[in-house]
Amino acid sequence: xxxxxxxxxxxxxxxxxxxxxxxxxxxxxxxxxxxxxxxxxxxxxxxxxxxxxxxxxxxxxxxxxxxxxxxxxxxxxxxxxxxxxxxxxxxxxxxxxxxxxxxxxxxxxxxxxxxxxxxxxxxxxxxxxxxxxxxxxxxxxxxxxxxxxxxxxxxxxxxxxxxxxxxxxxxxxxxxxxxxxxxxxxxxxxxxxxxxxxxxxxxxxxxxxxxxxxxxxxxxxxxxxxxxxxxxxxxxxxxxxxxxxxxxxxxxxxxxxxxxxxxxxxxxxxxxxxxxxxxxxxxxxxxxxxxxxxxxxxxxxxxxxxxxxxxxxxxxxxxxxxxxxxxxxxxxxxxxxxxxxxxxx
Length: 345
Fold this sequence. Notes:
By secondary structure, this protein is of the alpha/beta class. The chain has helices spanning 2-23, 36-50, 61-69, 84-90, 120-128, 137-142, 163-175, 177-182, 199-209, 219-224, 244-251, 290-306, 308-313, 321-330, and strands spanning 26-31, 53-58, 75-78, 92-107, 117-118, 154-158, 195-197, 213-218, 228-229, 231-233, 239-240, 276-284, 286-287, 317-318, 335-336.
């Protein structure tokens, strides 16, 4: 009888090991729509290379933060970084993956990409509901010679909690004093005007369907959907286009060695795209499921080593090797409940 019990117990342990290994074949994450096109591409390539499935739900940064705090996913994703104090309070750690840009996209018949110029003051006034016509004198002054219609502007913004919204509203708060005092910044704000779309996908679809509308999306969505976008005036006074070189210029001054909490909007430099941001992964510092955490980190380790070309193709900016080395070093702080690091190379 005792021998039977030992055999049953051993079989139970073996079965548990099989379940654990099977679970590690699927990693779950949720959050930001900003990097979702890239994460989907990385996940597909990683699955083909390793057989491990990355199940990433593009539900917005706000939802991603809620899910990682609630431990319902292996990692959360947000374009709004948490401060070091917030991370400590929540028992989380964060690290950046790539850098990208948020772009104003519009749908005005007869006006093509890069023909219109905007700045933060005018963009803020549009979303405040103060500028309501495309031929408003403030827009005309930035675009002499451009035939602007006497048409009502339809602003489109995010309906969900969004890191893209954080980057956009953080920028407006730096460039439009009234926006800062009346609305401010965050993943969700009390919008004075406009209709809401869910995710970068929803805003893209809304703007494409609605004539004379304007919205804001991550550049990969604008590019993939062949959307019309504006040039933006940066802090140096230059009008620049969204592209990897202008995103790199905006990120040049970030000091990742001090903290991974870095905001990249309205940075100095004549080539800097003013609405630039990094996107971040959040994980629990103390892991109840260390195998899942290890599988998550193994995926991002692979992505840093193999995913730069895929990032380039979608106009995200890969992180410098020196920053990736800092990130891998920081992963040592992610431990199991006994304090042992969950992932070492």
